[in-house]
Design goal:
Blueprint lengths: L10 E3 L10 H5 L5 E5 L3 H14 L14 H25 L8 H8 L5 H11 L4 H11 L5 E6 L7 E2 L2 E2 L6 H10 L6 E5 L4 H6 L17 E6 L2 H12 L5 E7 L16 H29 L12 E5 L5 H10 L4 E3 L15 H9 L5 E4 L8 E4 L3 H11 L28 H12 L5 H13 L3 H4 L2 H6 L28 H8 L14 H22 L3 H24 L4 H8 L10
Parallel strand pairs: 1-2, 1-10, 2-3, 3-6, 6-7, 7-8, 8-9, 9-10
Antiparallel strand pairs: 4-5, 11-12
Helix pairs in contact: 2-3, 3-7, 9-10, 14-15, 19-20
Length: 588
């Protein structure tokens, strides 16, 4: 077993939806487990702040829409109360060292045997120390998990106050970033779903992202990327602003939950290999840009590169895969997302959705067109938000009332941007389609595609309201859920201890013996995506799409060759790889 990782755990819980991990740090951080919550919905955060204030007997004063900069202030206030509760729980945990079956014992039991903290604890116990000695040891050695936050960089809608357009710094993503920067957290912000140069430039105005006189960062940046090139481009862009990337978080484009990105069919194995081979080159190249920017800004210049982590996530499902990725690609942590949807001690999922997730098979998990962002979205058949959407359509009132407005990005029919999942947009779209005199079948398909868009701003957060017994009068009770394909191989609700045991090889929760290796599953998903794109091209060919498909085929073929070499001594995988066929385009 590798002992490279000195954190409490060698896994982290990535952001899931808007509400599924919104309070995960309160649940798991005291046990040394890092998790990430979404900063999309400040209204949801305000409701949960009121809920947790009452539950923990903490003072609460509402932050209404009438308060200037209310979005940023709500986010700051929520993050501060999460931080306060986690620290309180952590202190209580450390005081429970003498309790049989207490929180301290739970902390230790969930650790992998190779964790440095667990080794030190076992050595300490072997020396027969007193309870007071143990309390002192716990105070010195136990670590909390990180309370990280996530921003989808492109969800950066402009805002108004008293009907007047506000400056750029009050845009949704800008305000969320400021909310995090002003909080008490000493943690990281995950930048996901691509580059937003205007948002990235705003980092320069936030002093706590720059190193102090000891070279320490109060607030850190995690860059979620799909390939090495993106890491280099975005890393240098931010470095020119004097912002250091403390972690490069590689996520599979298709073998993940939530929004999916087929892109150029680059595969996880070759991508991680490229990072492994070039990580020091990446760090050095960005450090040179970084120190030049710090010097120009008269900031403290770090002679040596600041610490950098390399992590990966997307479809990992067994202890063997977990350890393989850690060791083969020299990673610092592995993200486990989808399986944790079945762990109520870690995530916030309502009972009806939990039941659907437990019963989900491969055919129930699909890549949908429901996202108003126009990006393929992993979804689950039969979810209650879909049922709600179909009910509205049946009543002749398709679309959402758009209570949150975070995804207002379209101005096809209106001067001001609106959301494609909104009732306003869908009515205008259906009218426009009707006026085009399309053939009946084509019109029906176009209408269906338009009405597939669903209100994810609300649907992905409602579960947190339902679980905590809060009103859903504005939002409605429908829950949209976004598991990755990996959900098909898990079928029961489990405890946090049991899931940790599974990750570290002490138990096995995968009940399907035919589950493919994480790399093969991702390859299959990419092959399916490629052939669907090929069908679209053959129906309506363009030179640009042809070029894209040829590039995808090239990446798939080179990826298969890489896996043939990687798994050369595993005949089952080799035989499976030999069956994959790629239909390529000719140059004629």
């Amino acid at each position: 077993m590798s002992t490279k990782n000195f954190n409490a755990h060698s896994f982290h819980i990535p952001v899931m939806g808007i509400g599924f991990t919104i309070d995960s740090p309160i649940k798991v951080a005291a046990y040394g487990i890092s998790s990430t919550l979404s900063l999309v919905d400040d209204v949801l955060m305000e409701k949960l702040r009121a809920f947790y204030s009452e539950k923990w007997n903490l003072p609460y004063e509402a932050i209404t829409n009438k308060v200037e900069d209310s979005r940023a202030k709500r986010i700051t206030a929520y993050l501060n109360i999460v931080d306060q509760i986690v620290k309180q729980k952590f202190e209580q945990l450390k005081q429970s060292v003498a309790e049989k079956g207490g929180e301290f014992e739970k902390y230790i039991n969930m650790l992998p045997d190779y964790a440095e903290i667990k080794k030190q604890f076992n050595s300490f116990i072997d020396n027969n120390k007193t309870i007071d000695d143990l309390k002192n040891w716990a105070n010195t050695h136990l670590q909390m998990g990180s309370i990280d936050v996530n921003i989808m960089t492109k969800l950066d809608k402009e805002n108004k106050f008293n009907n007047e357009k506000l400056p750029v710094i009050y845009n949704d993503a800008h305000a969320a970033l400021r909310g995090f920067a002003n909080s008490n957290l000493h943690s990281s912000i995950v930048l996901s779903a691509g580059m937003n140069p205007r948002l990235y430039a705003y980092f320069e105005q936030l002093d706590n992202f720059f190193p102090d006189q000891n070279g320490n960062l109060e607030k850190k940046v995690i860059l979620k990327i799909s390939d090495y090139r993106s890491a280099l481009i975005q890393g240098k862009f931010l470095a020119k602003k004097g912002i250091w990337i403390s972690e490069y978080r590689v996520e599979s484009g298709l073998n993940c939950g939530g929004h999916a990105f087929g892109n150029d069919a680059s595969l996880m194995g070759p991508i991680l290999e490229e990072f492994k081979q070039n990580k020091q080159e990446l760090i050095n190249a960005i450090h040179q840009v970084y120190i030049a920017a710090l010097a120009e800004k008269n900031k403290f210049v770090t002679a040596e590169p600041l610490p950098v982590k390399f992590t990966a996530q997307g479809g990992v499902g067994t202890a063997e895969e977990h350890q393989f990725l850690l060791e083969k690609y020299e990673l610092d942590s592995i993200g486990w997302g989808t399986p944790f949807l079945l762990v109520p001690e870690a995530t916030t999922v309502d009972n009806e959705t939990l039941d659907l997730l437990c019963k989900a098979k491969e055919n129930d998990l699909y890549l949908s067109s429901i996202s108003p962002l126009g990006v393929p979205f992993n979804s689950l058949k039969g979810n209650t938000k879909d049922a709600e959407r179909l009910e509205w359509i049946a009543k002749g009132r398709p679309g959402s009332s758009c209570p949150r407005e975070f995804a207002k990005l379209n101005n096809d029919f209106t001067e001001e941007v609106i959301c494609t999942a909104s009732r306003q947009y869908q009515n205008l779209k259906l009218q426009a389609l009707q006026s085009q005199n399309l053939p009946t079948e084509e019109l029906e398909d176009a209408n269906d595609l338009a009405m597939q868009k669903t209100c994810l701003c609300v649907g992905l957060g409602t579960s947190a309201l339902l679980v905590n017994g809060l009103s859903t009068r504005t939002e409605g009770p429908g829950v949209a859920v976004c598991p990755g394909p990996n959900m098909a191989y898990y079928s029961k609700i489990v405890s946090l201890q049991t899931m940790c045991n599974h990750i570290y090889g002490k138990e096995n929760l995968v009940d399907n013996p035919n589950r493919p290796h994480v790399f093969l599953k991702e390859l299959e998903l990419n092959l399916d995506y490629y052939h669907n794109q090929l069908k679209s091209y053959l129906a309506k060919p363009t030179d640009a799409m042809k070029k894209q498909l040829n590039n995808m085929a090239k990446n798939l073929e080179s990826g298969i060759r890489y896996y043939m070499e990687l798994f050369h001594n595993q005949p089952n995988i080799i035989n499976q790889l030999a069956t994959y066929k790629i239909t390529t385009l000719t140059n004629g």
